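Hi everyone, sorry if this is the wrong subforum. Our group has a chain we'd like a structural model of before ordering constructs, and none of us has done structure prediction before. Sequence below.
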Amino acid sequence: MSLTTALSIAQSALFNTSRQTSVVSRNISEASNPDYARRNAILSSTGAGARVAEVRRATNEILFRQNLSAISSWQAQSGLSRGLDTLQLQINGVDNATSPAASLGQLIQALETYAATPSNKTLAENAVNAARSTVRTLNSGTAAVQSFRADADREIAQSVEELNRLLADFESVNRQIVTGTRMGRDVNDALDQREALLKKIAEYVPVSTIRRGDNDMVVMTHDGATLFETVARPITFAQTETYTASTSGNQVYVDGVPLSAGSGGNTTATGRLAAQLQLRDTVAVQMQQQLDEAARGLITAFAETDPNGVLADAAGLFTWSAGPSLPASGTLIDGLAGTITVNAAMDSTQGGDPELLRDGGANGAAYVHNGTGGASFSDLLLAYTAKLDEPMAFDPAASLGASMSLGAFTSGSISWLESLRREASTGAEAKEAFITRTEAALSNETGVNIDEEMALLLDLEHSYQASARLMSVIDEMLGTLISIAR
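Answer:
Right subforum, don't worry. Here is the predicted structure as tokens:
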């Protein structure tokens, strides 16, 4: 080997070591960045030693796709769980203290107390006050549900706006990658940015990808709707500012294709948007239906009857916007819980007589039960409490059954929501564990291990020292040759 060749090899080794040291140093500096993929300087043999052919990113497509799927599932499940917790507090309160079931229990207790001493007008007033409290619970429950839906709608609008922004950023980065690849530039940093954007996009919608030539990428949802192909596709949504029980929320469209909402406590939703749609259009709607059916049950249970017990088509203690006629049996009426009121004829705050609850006749003399005005008359009060324990028809759409007592129905509403919350919480724990495992597995494959990088840096230092020593020996030999030539 000639001295010139040896010198060339030593120079190449020093240059390679410098490049490799730079790559390792960058790896160490980015060790805490979860969106950074480890770099490796790949050497290629040449006639005069070796050279750094490329700086390659560590990748694992299978693990990355699993991580994207885990991100979508976790975001949906955790969003659903948080939403259910919020709804439970807004409707039923802490320990279900403000639930319809609790207020109904207080009404029953007030009726039983009044029935024991029907001559006590104060107890009559207390019973009507308990009825007003029950009405407030249903009215405020309806307002809370519709406010919850409006909040969910605003969150959907914000999510759509953010998703469109992310897709626009993705388009810009993807363009840099394609252009850089075609021109032979290092695009590793841009590839890191693109994968980081994919993770953020996966928080909102489920993502699947297709790689094409020049590192180009196509992004779709799991349903096949295109999110990005050369250009970002539009995600559209028309926000509804105010909700009533009869309002239907607008759909989210991905490139013109409607996005499906999730279902179940351990939700089928993937991505935050599908969970938000589920909360707005399924969970909250069913909660409203249960409130409406509870209101209908109250109106029916306290409806006026003639002295022989024959049901009249007239409301008694409770009435509604279409009163005094009764709501249809076993059929949902949207927003009924928001319009139920205490009959003004029995409400002292409206000039009514609370003792009509004991005597009957709130809507006419034909329905008076206590015709003699007896102070100890309690038959009608006892009939009301018995009626509340009797099975009545409920619309199966409320998801609690078709026939049961009103008390069982309101208690079932609490159980329904608690069961959904428990299932959502359990699902969130499982999906959180899954995303943790996939992130750890992906990090092991593509992340930076400080110990390994420091060991490699030490090896490079030794290599640098060897190359420097070789340069020194060559320098001495060249000096000797020059002195001989003189």
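For your construct planning: The chain is about 55% helix and 10% strand. The two ends are 24 Å apart (CA to CA).
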